[in-house]
């Protein structure tokens, strides 16, 4: 049995590429809330998720030719359970957001930053450094400041968002566990995950929506929003996340992804015209600081400070 790899065993260039990709994912996912809101004004939530991931699967269909090779079969074995976890995350988030306040949802989903070091410890028998736990709580406190003023009266929606946060932590760790030390196609892995989510959403829709889905809208705004979410927030984001997790540690990945609320707040402020308080900006700065801690070479940085 091979020993688990860590970020330190990966060439520094690949680590920096992974970090940059994760920050770009945080940017596009931060913008996705406003874009998705536009699309959901035209179509039901679960139906839209089925459309979004169904289109993703179709666009990535050529990558399934890899299934005839060992790399493709390895991606299939990992992609099926990871797709099921992703489906559970999206289902919890979708119904959770519908049943609670947006600020509550943003705060609770950020708990994945705190859960990930614990999940890494339990699922991978690898205890992260104590400073990783500290930065996780710094990021969490920053998110609380970012959403300051919301009333966290716990209800079913809050419970579903909490479950989604826990599943996000499990997802990052299981991606690492199922892909490390294995040669596989990251693009095929992303395609398999998308197919599982798209099919799963259709099945859930069939169970919960009497009369089935309405016909697709013809509005240009709907299709522009859909294409943005498919190309950037799904194909690019999940490909980048799968690649980065294979190169890095789950806790490091989670801290970098924890900057997502900052970019969401910036998008809301500059694109949607929402006002942010001083405390919100302070909270955003703390989240960015925690993300920088995860990505910057601290040993070099500390050595320079000591001079």
TrEMBL record:
It is found in: Cell membrane. InterPro entries: Diverse_Substrate_Transporter (IPR051258), EamA_dom (IPR000620), EmrE-like (IPR037185). The keyword Transmembrane helix applies. It is a multi-pass membrane protein. The chain crosses the membrane at residues 15-35, 41-62, 74-99, 105-123, 154-174, 186-208, 220-241, 253-272, 278-296. This is EamA-like transporter family protein. Pfam families: EamA. Keywords: Cell membrane, Membrane, Transmembrane, Transmembrane helix. Residues 17-147, 156-294 form the EamA domain. The keyword 4Fe-4S does not apply.
